Amino acid sequence: MKKSRRIAILFLWLSLPLFSLHSSNVWAGLDGNQNLIREDALKLGLVPGPSSTQNGYSSVTMSLPSGSPRSMNGRKTLTVREFFDTGGTIFAVAWEGSLPPDLSVLLGDRFSSVPKKNSSPYRHQLFVRTPDLIVRVIGTARFRAGKAWIPSRLPPGFNADQIRVQAP
Amino acid sequence: MKWTGIRKTGRTLFLLSGLLLLTGCGGGSSSSTAPEAVCTGGTPPTSKKTSSNQMVVYQSTCRGAVNEPVVTLTICVPNSPNCESVPNILVDIGSTGLRLSHTLSISSQLHQESENNGPITECYGFVSGYNYGPVVTASVMLGNQSVTVPVQISNSSLTAPSSCTNAYNGSAPFEPYINGILGLLFPQDDTSDGLYYEGGSGPTTVSSSLAVQNPVFLLPSSENNGVLLSGFPTVSPTPGRLTVSGLLTFGTGNASLSKLDTNSSATVTASYGGVSGLTAYFDSGSNGWFIDNANKIPPCTSSSLSGFFCGSATNQSAILTGTNGISVTLDFSIESAQTLFATGNQDFSSLGGPLSGVFDAGFTAFLNGQTIGVGWDPATVNSTDTGYFLYGN
To answer: Which of A5, A95, B52, B73 is 20 to 30 A from B333, comparing alpha carbons?
Structure first.
């Protein structure tokens, strides 16, 4: 094998992790850009709806298609809503359903703030509060509802109670 | 969660509650020494009279937990005299099947199940994380009935498969807060909510008879259609109680309770604070009223009390409605978690926190003088995946 070819193959091997690292991180989640919300939906196995714009923010709601094998003929559900500001940055997410969403997708880079071993005595609630991330999840083994947001990124006049899957 | 606010009183409280329950420490193990990390502590108060299909439920005597109803279960190696009386097993109508900490003496003696491709392990997801470990067979005493049933050993020292860690956030070891969870929710087995592995490979499907099961389904026909939790005292909104006890009854009996049919997520709907269509459920495994905050009750802002209310609100009322249109009204109060935890008590009817879109009637709801149960039709529940909640006097 020619030296130049060996170098080319070595370069290819060395660069593979970089490519795979890059490709595995193509989603948005908290602090990501709304351009990648469809990638989030793909990663979560959900189908996104149209973007909806309210006063000072927009959101996209995505849900599990009833024909998906994970839905078990409609018995299992999952709906996720991502909120982004006028600059396109995702500042909050909410979810609800019988299936848990992959929090590493929804929380993006902030996922590292969630403890890897949860030392809480409680099975049915997860509360995380750091200066950069608030996570609240409650539920049972068959139903979960949660929300997460970056406190400093809430748009002016936006209240954390507005972070919900469905408008009341 | 760190309970820095109540840690000062924690040690005293733990000792005191142990004394009040007239306990001897230790799990009643057949071995001479208990593993270090096991939550030892109380045995049931003896003042409660029980029928053959009942067990005493008491506040966990493990350190640092409030509103945690537990039972003492006798766990045996099937067809052997090797048994252990294990206190502080959470009574949970929000999960399915019995799970035990690997730190219990009996856990290492129970035989692991195996199928085509090797020994069976399971990853079961709770909200605060997953429990991973081998599936074993155990004989369990429910009241005066013994059932032999597949049980999960939750072993937080094992490395869980990536499919498990990707599906759920971090691992959630039982010890030192509880020794196990008795999951009393339908359906019979947990295969639709757990990930199974054989010989370390998977996720895969296992025979339903080998899957972790709600042991109540294995009781005689008059006792296998659900459970009731009753007899807890009515606890005033403040200052709460140091401890409480009540009864777990196997079989829903003929009590004239309101029956709210659920959907396949084991939820009903609620109307509260002028908002309708909230997703609602009763759950002995959550420790408060976690509810849509339309009434603008101030949440706590400190990280140690994150998730709870730090404001108060009296005369709260919610209407829960089943898919069959039957409704019940729940009256309650909310008190500041900071105020409640400062009392040093462990059982509160007024603890809660905000969560948009839902109405979680946690163990607080069981401290209002009502009987609450979960039930199912044993003949159809495994195909419909639906059941009902019971509520009333």
So the answer is: A95
